[in-house]
Amino acid sequence: MSMQTAAAQLIKTTKVLNYQWSRAAEHWDDPVSRRIEEKHIQPVVEMVHSAIGAMETMSEAINRAKHECS
What we know:
There is one protein chain. The protein is elongated. 91% of the residues lie in helices and 0% in strands. The protein has one domain (3-69). The chain has helices at residues 3-27, 31-69. The mean pLDDT is 94.
């Protein structure tokens, strides 16, 4: 699997998570749900954004190395 494919899958899965969480939040809005969002959902989204940035950087480095070796 290429780095771009993995990043695309990660983005898609994160969108699904956000969608499902927003649907749950329509019916569940109390201190527990807000704590779950703060302690679990948001950190995951932030980590995904960081991972995608790192994956893009790695992909560029790999492509540069392949070009230099050919």
